[in-house]
Design goal:
The protein is mostly helical and 235 residues long. It has 8 helices and 2 strands.
Length: 235
């Protein structure tokens, strides 16, 4: 985690990088709102994407705390925050993968028979990263899963020409831009540096993905309702 030098004093406490905390908190709030809206569809794909967003938002919130507190409360507290942040991050990775698998197979009643294996793998991965003190492998997993989700939603778009999948593809593509901004350290000011710009792009990416998932969920929900009505007529 890269530390910044900007800070403010509030209630006798030194808040480092307050804008990072603000952006990450906003990201979390939006994730929580989108979670509530998507879970109303009662569809596996919708719930899985909702969980992906919620867990990612929680991870982002803890990341903001880490940037703000830094090591003022000791190494142990900071390492705990860092571990929790990455734990929620890798849990979100699983639900991103699961949702992409579900939509690709057009299986709104998909089985969870592999969930225990994946959860064990996640646990082992977290233990390994916690012991080694390096979470690079989690970032690599996240990149691979996002690429998988991108390809899957593109193939679904090619198959169905639906606007929702197109928006998800666009949102995922936008989500890769923060890597460029962060790597090139593109900044406007010390108080709005490359990390702040990256977070703004992440919020835009989240919104676009949410709009796409919402549209996909509406289509799946309508198709499921029509199927149930047809079955009732036959009976």
């Amino acid at each position: 985690m890269e530390f910044g030098t900007t800070y403010i004093f509030l209630f006798g406490f030194k808040f480092f990088e307050p804008l990072v905390l603000l952006m990450n908190t906003l990201f979390f709030v939006l994730c929580a709102i989108y979670y509530g809206r998507l879970t109303k569809f009662k569809l596996p794909y919708s719930k899985q994407m909702a969980l992906f967003m919620l867990l990612l938002g929680i991870s982002s919130f803890f990341g903001g705390i880490g940037h703000t507190v830094q090591k003022q409360m000791g190494d142990g507290f900071f390492e705990t925050i860092l571990f929790v942040m990455n734990a929620f991050s890798i849990l979100s990775i699983y639900f991103c993968f699961k949702s992409a698998y579900t939509i690709f197979n057009l299986d709104v009643r998909s089985s969870n028979k592999y969930v225990y294996f994946v959860m064990v793998w996640i646990l082992l991965l977290l233990i390994y990263c916690g012991v080694q003190g390096s979470f690079l492998i989690i970032k690599i997993h996240a990149g691979i899963v996002l690429l998988y989700a991108l390809i899957v939603h593109y193939l679904v778009y090619r198959r169905n020409k639906d606007k929702g999948s197109e928006l998800v593809v666009l949102g995922i593509l936008i989500s890769f831009l923060p890597l460029i901004v962060h790597s090139l350290r593109i900044s406007l000011h010390d108080w709005f540096n490359h990390k702040d710009m990256a977070h703004v792009i992440m919020i835009i990416s989240l919104y676009v993905i949410y709009k796409g998932v919402f549209q996909i969920s509406k289509v799946l929900s309508t198709e499921e309702q029509e199927t149930e009505e047809q079955s009732a007529i036959k009976i």
